[in-house]
Design brief:
Elements (H helix, E strand, L loop, with lengths): L20 H10 L11 H14 L3 E5 L2 H10 L7 E5 L4 H10 L6 E5 L4 H9 L4 E5 L11 H10 L3 E5 L4 H4 L9 E5 L13 E5 L1 H14 L5 H12 L1 H20 L4 E5 L9 H7 L6 E6 L3 H10 L4 E2 L9 E3 L11 H6 L6 E5 L5 H13 L2
Parallel strand pairs: 2-3, 2-4, 4-5, 5-6, 10-11
Antiparallel strand pairs: 1-7, 6-7, 8-9, 9-12, 11-12
Bound molecules: pyridoxal-5'-phosphate (PLP).
Length: 372
């Protein structure tokens, strides 16, 4: 029949059939085709190839979540006795993995604040296997200076990994900054519609087979339906991100001037401590910001409850604006002392700006602030 589908079918198959045993043997030995979907699946390969091209790396690997991508990529590159240096402000799940799980495997983890470039370099000089970065950070939007850190780590023969979820491939080009392995929680901007849990690793050929083997063994592979939705998301990524960048900047300026707001954390504001690094390193300031309401925990909770267009929810990066109080969810597990050290106050609100009309979002924030 003439005519082929514009949209590729979703390959909902766990396994693949062969006409001859020799063909199956060949695929098992050479990986020149499909054999079992925990190894590879055509729908997953399609989105992997698109993302790899977007990030500028040879290859990408799809995972069942951002955490599956992070843990698999790290485990594939450490052994007992390894030393991992990471930025302290990493995502909570990553922090637990680095801090609680790796030491059980006799792997040392050193955590340093992401803005202390010189201190991180001093630690790098003592030796390491992996430099693990995440920037911009959650929820204060601090920006680590990737290039000098990557350079110092490479001089020591280490692998540089970056969780670039908050920036997405549009606002940051890690390959140009010396990053070897880029990780995304595709649950966020890449999926973009709050309807999948997925992750990706992007890397060049030299790292691919090793991570592929660990993915096959640990089993955290992306499912074909998520691959289909991630591919659909990636097709609109650039226009969504541009809109989210624009909306977030306008909201940051509005909040910055509001009398009931104590502080705004957005790397696009000149008052942000890492503004200069962000200007140099990023192509857009992103759709994430956080701010402190002038009041205590209960006043802030009341403000949250009054939001009508912006939804009270965790997660981020989708078309719908979401807000939460880090103290009640993403950072609830931290002791009050560690929370204070991390700069997470009881009046802090994190906002993931969506693609709605910005006037609607500003109006929503304004009316909720009026009730505080
Ligand atoms: C920066 C960052 N990295 C990784 C993750 C983990 O991703 P997932 O929830 O898809 O496992 C998250 C989740 O919020 C995140 O914000």
């Amino acid at each position: 029949m003439k005519g082929k589908p514009v949209i590729l079918p979703v390959h909902l198959t766990a396994t693949y059939k062969f006409d001859k045993s020799d063909d199956l043997i060949d695929v098992v030995q050479t990986r020149s085709g499909y054999i079992y979907s925990r190894w590879d699946n055509p729908s997953v390969v399609e989105v992997e190839n698109r993302l790899a091209a977007m990030e500028g790396y040879d290859k990408a690997l799809g995972f069942g979540s951002g955490m599956a991508a992070i843990t698999t990529a790290i485990l594939a590159n450490v052994k007992a006795g390894s030393r991992v240096i990471a930025t302290q402000e990493v995502y909570g799940g990553t922090y637990e993995f680095l801090n609680d799980i790796l030491p059980k495997l006799n792997i040392e983890t050193v955590l340093v604040n992401c803005w202390k470039t010189q201190k991180i370099i001093e630690e790098i000089e003592k030796g390491l296997s992996i430099l693990y970065l995440e920037t911009p950070t959650n929820p204060l939007l601090r920006v680590a200076d990737i290039k000098p850190l990557a350079q110092a780590a490479h001089e020591k023969g280490a692998i540089v990994m970056l969780d670039s979820t908050f920036a997405s491939p549009i606002n940051q080009h890690p390959i140009d900054l010396g990053v070897d392995i880029v990780i995304h929680s595709a649950t966020k901007y890449l999926g973009g519609h709050h309807d999948i849990t997925a992750g990706f690793v992007c890397c060049n050929h030299q790292h691919f087979d090793n991570i592929w083997t660990y993915r096959k063994i640990l089993g955290g592979v992306m499912d074909p339906m998520s691959a289909f939705l991630a591919l659909r998301g990636i097709q609109t990524l650039e226009i969504r991100i541009h809109r989210q960048n624009e909306n977030a900047m306008k909201i940051a300026v509005f909040l910055d001037q509001h009398e009931k707001i104590k502080a705004v954390n957005y790397p696009g504001l000149t008052s942000h401590p890492d503004y200069e690094i962000a200007v140099r390193q990023m192509l857009g300031f992103g759709g994430m910001l956080s701010f402190e309401v002038n009041g205590d925990f209960n006043k802030t909770k009341h403000f949250m409850d009054e939001l009508k267009v912006i939804k009270l929810a965790t997660s981020l990066g989708g078309v719908t604006s979401l807000a939460n109080q880090p103290i009640t969810n993403t950072h609830a597990a931290l002791s009050p002392e560690n929370r204070a050290k991390a700069g997470i106050s009881e009046s802090l609100v994190r906002l993931s700006v969506g693609i709605e009309q910005v006037d609607l979002l500003i109006h929503d924030l304004k009316q909720a602030l009026e009730t505080v």
